[in-house]
Amino acid sequence: MSREFDKRIDAIAAVAESLLAGGLKGVEKESLRVDAAGELSQSPHPRALGSALTNRYITTDFSEALLEFITPAYSSTWETLRFLCDIHQFSYERLEDDLLWTASMPCRIPSDLGIPLARYGKSNVGQMKTAYRRGLGHRYGRPMQTIAGVHFNYSLPPHFWPAYRDILEDGQTESLFRSAHYLGLVRNFRRFGWLVLYLFGASPAMCKSFKGSEGSTMPELNPATWYEPFGTSLRMSDLGYSNQNQSRINISLNSLEDYIDDLGEAIMTPEPAYAGIGVKVDGVYQQLSANRLQIENEYYSPIRPKRVAKSGERPTAALRRGGIEYVEIRSLDISIDDPAGINQNTMRFMEAFLIYCLIEDSPLFDDQSLEETKWNQTATAKQGRDPEFRLRREGGTVTLTSWASEILGKVLTIAGLIDRAEGGDSYAESVRLMRSIVDDPDLTPSARLLNELRETNAGFCEFILSVARGHRDYFASITPLLDERREQFETEVLQSLNRQAEIEASDQLSFDEYLSTYYRSG
Questions:
Q1: Does residue 301 have a pLDDT over 90?
Q2: N or C: lower Cβ tally within 10 Å for the chain?
């Protein structure tokens, strides 16, 4: 792989260093809403934050208590982070006594049905979103859906694609070329994504309420906390999203057509394990269907190829229409150290790393190589800091340190090109910081969290609650929102409520008819 990478990066540098600079970066950050005592909030989504169905910046995910903050995509990491901080500040002014949970693994949570589903109003689209979540609860359990994360959305700058196509002397249309190489990025992210879990995983421990006091085979850190001694991201392990229910679903990443077709087949294929749940029971949809997937978004992957969909358009239909427009990285844990859950160093490193994944040679997956990537992710999530840990690579094994060092050397080359185009040394510095974390596992967020828990002798929830109070106080203490930004958010609140009312007033079909039409549209 190295020779191919070197040839491509040299050609890019010869054309223009600026080819790699200016890609668009956006963030979607989830946070549980908790009460002052650190218990999952049971109150409805605050009306002061607008409509969860239609607000472009503030919505909910699985639960009424699981907020999701969404930034626009900016070319500057600082602009993205500033917008995310502004959403936090605006929201905290309207949360009354509630706090935002500052970890990926949840607070003290009630039993399954005590976790309230997100509600989006009486429109067909709103009912569909709630019914889909009810189905997720039946299939995977509601507690798993309270795990939160940070999604990083990225697209290379538009001027990169025609230049790169010329460098590779590829005769495909730009849309086909772009999609093929984004899929190469996706495959390589699956190959190398264990590095993200090691560097940014911040969920090696969890409250016992997540599994129950007798419900885990993990060691006990203290009477309130389960943990993995060398864990990095329990969120991304088989405990969380990479669970056994989903591991049986294989979606090809070798071509966009195969990816779309495989998702479509999973949506239409009956799953006997879900048939017993029923679909419409006593007039209430318990799930949207009894098939392997209810909709495309149910398929969990650390990375998704995406295109902005038109109103009412399914994700796969959008991809079929225009190809891949950007990628969504879903494997970042919430950073407990950062009030907004992420910082610029993380975004800069992720940008350079994703470009590396695109430029590096990306062979198609066969069964063995795909199985290796799955094993490496789960194993790194649960034991990535173990000095004896070894990753699987092309039928052999390798230490995490040696493979990570090889990757980081190439990522540093990319970071240097971005820095020369933008001025400064911030991208290269972010890579050097990650190299120090590879050299010393005690510097990882996961190790630092476990050390804090040991030193304070605090339970997981007790410690995270103290951090959440500190982050709330931080947002209360910083410079007030600019009038222009405050007006932007307030206008969106009002307009989102109006948009929801308009959608509800315009429905002409029954929900049964709407759902049937939706599935036919794929």
A1: yes
A2: N
For residue 311, the model assigns a pLDDT of 83
The first and second tokens of residue 428, run together, are 């290269």
Q: Report the half-sphere exposure of 472 (CA within 13 A, side-chain side).
A: 21
CATH number given to 1-22+156-242+303-457: 3.30.590.20
Q: Do 24-153+458-502 and 1-22+156-242+303-457 fall under one CATH topology? A: yes
Question: What is the structure's pLDDT at 2?
Answer: 66
Give 257's strand partners: none
Structure confidence at residue 247 as a pLDDT band (50, 70, 90): low
Query: How far, in Å, CA of 166 to CA of 158, rounded?
Result: 14
Residue type, 287: Q
Extract the tokens encoding 156: 């290379």
User: Which tens digit of pLDDT belongs to each residue from 138-158?
Assistant: 999 999 999 999 999 999 999
Q: Please give the sequence-ordered ranges of beta strands (E in DSSP) within 291-358, or none if there are none.
A: 303-306, 326-332
Residue 417: CB atoms within 10 Å: 22
For residue 370, pLDDT beyond 90? yes
Domain ranges of the chain: 1-22+156-242+303-457, 24-153+458-502, 255-299
| Distance (Å, whole) CA 103 – CA 464 | 7
The DSSP H or E segment spanning 450 is: helix 445-456
Closest CA to 37 of 475, 459, 461: 461
Any residues with CB less than 8 A from the CB of 459 and at least 6 apart, and which? Answer: 207, 222, 223, 224, 225, 453
Cα 113 to Cα 321: distance, rounded to the nearest angstrom: 40
CA of 182: how far to CAs of 6, 8, 40, 174, in Å? 19, 16, 38, 12
Is 70 exceeded by the pLDDT of residue 522? no
CA atoms within 13 A on the CB side of 116: 18
Per-residue pLDDT tens over the stretch 95-113: 999 999 999 999 999 988 8
Tell me the CA distances in angstroms from 274 to 280, 386, 514, one per residue in order.
Answer: 13, 38, 22
> Phi-psi region for residue 141, left (φ > 0), alpha (ψ -120 to 50) or beta?
left
Residue 54, both tokens: 């239609």
In the CATH hierarchy, which top-level class contains the domain 24-153+458-502? alpha beta
Q: Which of 267, 254, 273, 25 is nearest to 150 (CA)?
A: 25
> Which pair of tokens denotes residue 83?
């917008």
